[in-house]
Design goal:
It holds the Pfam family IU_nuc_hydro. This protein is an alpha/beta fold. It has 13 helices and twelve strands. β1, α1 and β2 form a beta-alpha-beta unit.
Length: 312
Amino acid sequence: MRKAILDVDTGVDDALGIMLAIRSGELDVLGITTVNGNVSLETATNNTCKILDLIHADPAIAVYPGAAQPLLRHPVFEHRIHGQDGLGGALANMQPVDRVKSDEFGPDFMIEQARRYPGEVTLIATGPLTNVALALAKRPSLVHELKEIIIMGGAVQTYGNITPVAEYNMYVDPEAARLVLQAGFPRLTMIGLDVTRHALLTSEHIDAIGPSEIADNVRQSTSDYMQRYFERNGVQACAMHDPLAVATAIWPELVETAQHYVDVETRSELCDGQTVCDFQNRLQREPNVSVGLKVDSKQFINRFITVLRDTD
Ligand code: BDR
Ligand code: CA
């Protein structure tokens, strides 16, 4: 089984990504690191523990809190989309088992696992890239020790979702994102809005998951999220940003990618966090990113439903 670390800012769609990763049975999840993003680090950590409880994940899967704020900027929470609690009000009263068992800092856990299993670990990052940047600052050789990194973030051919041009994860910590993209990873895949906006989950899809506790949770947690998506896009559905990044680790054939040079804007009043993709190689730089450009959304949603459906 492929070894993986999830780096999350749990959030509604991060939660769906965690469910997919663990329930698929295709990934050996070594641990989950949390980061400030949609909600505070503390809430993201607590939400991660809640989701792991909900799906009865192996108690050995521990959670490692990382950065409580971006490298240089103030946090920008996304309560409007994910709710005050980050899970759209679902699991509000749950008291999860505390899976933070050690003092190990999230970025250190990444470093330690990559050293223990050189060339074997896939890092799937579905929040702002602060933890990954901190790990790289401490151990630059991480780029060669990991098997690959898959990032949910960016938008190269479509508009942004937090500013006209920026995708949320890139916008929250553009300095970290820039550091990660420029670090020299031989295998870095970017799953951005170009593909995630085509991977839509509807209430009919959720009906196909249940009846079950998980289906109820998905319905409740995505309810406001779908409403916000409708207000912006006129479609009653929610974009499966983070689950698609997880799916790319499990079933890479679902997403078509192309190699390009990509950089992140960090010094513009209007465009901070924009991912700039050099499609025509005007800058004459080596490609650093496999950019997701097309997705087989039907297959993806079918597989997502199958994985979440209760078969017991
Ligand atoms: C990303 O932003 C967050 O709000 C989501 O959890 C996802 O990781 C989508 O732009
Ligand atoms: Ca996220």
